[in-house]
Design brief:
Layout lengths: L3 E4 L5 E4 L5 H8 L1 H6 L2 E4 L2 E3 L5 H7 L12 E6 L4 H22 L4 E2 L9 E6 L9 H14 L4 E6 H11 L2 H8 L7 E7 L2 E4 L13 E11 L8 E10 L2 H16 L2 H7 L3 E2 L10 E2 L1 H20 L3 E2 L5 E3 H7 L1 H4 L8 E2 L4 H13 L4 H13 L13 H14 L2 E4 L4 H9 L10 E10 L15 E11 L4 H18 L5 E7 L11 H18 L3 E5 L8 E7 L5 E10 L2 H4 L4 E2 L5 E2 L2 E6 L4 H11 L13 E5 L5 H13 L4 E3 L6 H10 L4 E5 L1 H6 L1 E6 L3 E7 H13 L25
Parallel strand pairs: 1-5, 15-19, 21-22, 28-29, 28-30
Antiparallel strand pairs: 1-2, 3-4, 3-5, 6-7, 7-12, 8-9, 9-10, 11-12, 13-14, 16-18, 17-18, 19-20, 20-27, 21-23, 23-24, 24-27, 25-26, 30-31, 31-32
Helix pairs in contact: 4-5, 6-7, 9-20, 13-15, 17-18
The protein binds one RNA strand through β11, β12, α9 and α22.
Amino acid sequence: MADVAVQLPDGTVQTHAATTTSMDIATAISPGLARNVIAAELGGRIVDASRPLGEVAGGDGSGGGGAADGPLPLKLLTSRDASALDVLRHSAAHVMARAVMRLYQGVSLAFGPTTSGGFYYDFDLPEKISEDDFPKIEAEMAKIIKEKEPFERFSLDRDEALKLCQEMGQDLKVEHIQTGLGDQASVSFYRQGEFVDLCRGPHIPDAGRIKAIKLLSVAGAYWKGDASGRQLQRLYGTAFFDKKDLAAYLEQLEEARRRDHRVLGKKHGLFAINQEVGPGLPLWLPKGARVRVMLEDFLRGELLRRGYDPVYSPHLGRVELYETSGHFPYYRDSQFPPLFGSEAGGLLDAWSRRLEEGTLDRDGEDKLMAAAEVLGVSLPDYKPSASAEDRRAVLHQWQTVHERYLVKPMNCPHHCQIFAAQPRSYRQLPLRLFEFGTVYRHEQTGELNGMLRVRGLTQDDAHIFCTDDQVEHEFRATIELTKFVLESVGFDDYRVQLSLRDPKSDKYVGSPENWNRAEGALRGVLEDSGLQYNEQPGEAAFYGPKADFMVRDCIGRSWQLGTVQLDYNLPDRFKLEYTGADNRGHRPVMIHRAPFGSLERFTGMLIEHFAGAFPLWLAPEQVRVLPLSEKTTEYALATAQQFEAAGLRVSTDLRNSKVQAKIRDAQLELVPYMVVVGPKEAEAGQVALRDRIDGDLGSMPTAEAIARLEQEVRERRVRQVVKSSFTQAEDAAGEKHEY
RNA sequence: GCUGCUGUAGCUCAGCUGGUAGAGCACAUCCUUGGUAAGGAUGAGGUCAUGGGUUCGAGUCCCAUCAGCAGCUCCA
């Protein structure tokens, strides 16, 4: 094989035999470097330091470039390179799997990739691993690491690979080679001592490079993400080059827990979710409600300024409304069940569903018919011999004349009816209808998460009805509005996800032409907006594509806040029309949009974003007046009244304790400003202002203090954001280790 | 919904191999009347998530239910 030319970061070009490895090159430079090399970045690919250059340069077909294009850029990765940490963690996952296999019988390996904070490995094994077993597994891992055995790569063609995995009893790997890797001619394995694993790599030179390791948690996971498939046990862990880094990471986790909105929400009395009311049904306590009112007022003002019309719609709607929109059949299982106006309603509903699923036998059907009769329902047209479809039609006929209501899971059908309630002319468009609409969705129990995922939520919902020609302008305006809203509260770290349909799926309504139009329009405006966005096929709503604004929580998980959705389909389903300039009927286009998303999630994210310390304009309590002693109680009350008259949210701390203690409490409760008043201030008509962030600001006339605060509110100034350590975490893993 | 873990005072938690509940903070009352992050004393507060079971005896052991947490799956 031909020699390979490589170019080092300093520009030097070296030519080596094809069998030379990156490690050889490192050794030639200095033994110290060789000791620190973790892996190599060769021609843009991260590979084992022990891989011969020739293999990477052109050998296995998957490499980029090739020697013909000139020297391959070569970077020797050490613990200082971010991508080296990923390699280390992937190797740590192997070490963990090896330890687990030593300790447990019948372990079937699934996948073991890295994540932004560490790694995991999925196992299928008969025994349950619990956190109590972690010390034992960690000890075994420590033993493996101490032996410093190398990671050795080898390739096999498919048949050999299958045979090897079969011999090892690794049935999940066998399945993966047959299905997931069906198009690969050969696959690679890594051996470390007795442990051999199908794996793409790359890996660290030897296990001794792992200096700090910790198992974090164990949880269930599904084989290849399929909820109907096998459930595996997933062990999470993390690894670092340095024990100090591990300690810092654990401290980060601890800090994240402290700023968790559920912890802060309880501590600061913002909201409560209790068992009596029900899971996922938050109660907004006065302080949390204060924040929400400020957000609502802020947005309402913006919307009125931007040509929106406020509307209100009821919390219930007839089921037929949602049958028309398509929501009822499509989201049946994640809605609260319908409310029936007749007691037989539930019976016929269950009956109809069984017919639909094909799970109703003759005996069951007879019983249902008898039960219906008992309840006084007469169905003369129902013929057990008819097709399931015809039988359902008879039931449905009965249902439509008897009342069935749905607690509304969406506002759009109601808004469509508001559009349809009056004749519309093209002169009225765009028509922008907005409402803080409360909706209820029966989210799966395992999904509920504080305020971030709830069953009762209020959307800052609006629907824009416009002409085809207006779509682009309106869409652009909503994107701008969403940006403006996010930035007004200080969210500056978000990304936009353009969710498109999956062309292979049949879950979507509407014609392909409509979809192409909608997706094209969204993409075009996002392109022009200069926002960073990524496309996610298969993530669209069933009626249209959407642009979601994703914001990260304090431990790096992404949540959808703002959303803008383009919809050519609901207007069709509701047969909406406006009269055009040509005096003919035309179908409007609909844009769904919600800059906050939901008030619940938005507020939850804000709590984490500010770690509970809201900027002045949002703070539930803006000022607390602290009299030095009971001697100045009256002056304190009078002062508080002055602040209140200026529209500031103020309280007084008249407790019989020292001012130091009152200050401490106000600081801990994150009140932005404190006003200390004693005899001196009372005499001079002044206040001693104390800033939560900067401390004592000295005495000043009361009016001056008020003016200062008023201005800060007016500017909606965000003075301090406690940065989360997890802001850059996501997607750091980049390339996935698929096997 | 699935797997695993958890459920003791308003909050954070202790309670050994079963013998009938405890701390700190918060709260209330009193003393103290203070100058920018904790003054002191006293007191009130718990059917140990709920329902069964084992036992002479259950906060502690077993089962079920409910709720919470982590992850998976889902998300209009």
